[in-house]
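Bench notes, afternoon.
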Amino acid sequence: MKCKCKMAVAFLLVLALLVPLSFGCGGAGKGVKTIHIGELTDFTGTAAPALKNITYVTEDVARYYNDNNLIPGVRVKVDAYDTMFQPAREITGYDWCKSRGAKVIITIISATAEVVKAFADKDKIAIAAMSTAPALFEPQPGMAFGFSGTTVATMKTIMQWVRQNDWKGQGTPTLGLVSWDDRSSLDAKKAVEDYIDAHPGSYNLVGGYVSPVGTSTFVSEAKKLKDCDYVTSTSGYPLGFFLRDLRAAGSKAKLFEGTGAMMSYRAFYANLCGWDALDGSLCTANSYYWNDSSAQVDLFKKLVHDYHPSEVNTIIAGGNGYVGAGQMVVEIFEILRQAIQKVGADNFDGPAFVDAAINYKTTGAMWKGSPPGTPDIPEWGFSQTKRILITDMLVYEFRKDGQDIFRKTDWIPMVEE
């Protein structure tokens, strides 16, 4: 009870700082305009164990903004389309979101944003990408914005951090890698290779093995890599299968992951591999986690308890999908609020979102650490040419003692790509 009261107080404090921006009654009704936000996600494919909680929090933040009338005169409706992690469904999903009237489409998988970008630029629909690669913004960023660090930057940063802060052995540590052959995973694999080429003596890459999307057996790769000091995977879902097979081969190699996906598969990995296999594994994040203290985490805990009372334990055990994506959704909705405040609900469109995003900064109560002593989330922002919002990250560790994920660092500036 004490915990829930503290959480409610923190929520009310954040709400009190946001509410002065609004007025009038909440909810749909006469004179209330519905703004559609599209979302291309995965309900039933291989990414679903992580992505379903991202859809939950997108809908929950929309409900939170609607219930508290944080965008006066507007009701936000999230229209989510299941791509089933199948590239052939991405354009179909884009067309479906467009047909619903979406002026902003959230993409969760990096490759999805790249596939639909040309259509979005032509149709003047803003793309809010939760996972990004440099190619999304080349040759021009157009209507696209990235709300997470790129897998290239996060992978290089975790490699640098591990080499400087974790490696206690003599000489050059050996590293093994497995990957699916999807675009995002291959980008991250290249980042590993490029980092090693640029930093001779940092790691000795024993092998980098690529398998088709859908592969769930890595017995051969595990045997070849079992004597490495470190192993990594650039694909979130199959990492669990690789770790299972690696431990079955008798390997004591330490796992690190730099794509930001690992924390969103917490329950999946724990059920598949067990905490003994996961213990000591290192991973990256662009947001705080459930057991951290911050205004945002307190808010997301309240939303889970209020909107999913029968699923609280399942959603929290699932990992960082809800909290990590929630931070990005709040950013998206704050840009939406600022755009509508400037042009009005009737005039809101994709270019209005772009104009607001270009001037957006992460400032205010939602970005403060809590209690005092917890680092504030850094101030990030977009510009006409800077389309990757996040420039810092955190390192977390899986621990069997406590059977959870715990923060090891404060905010670390990401290395340049």
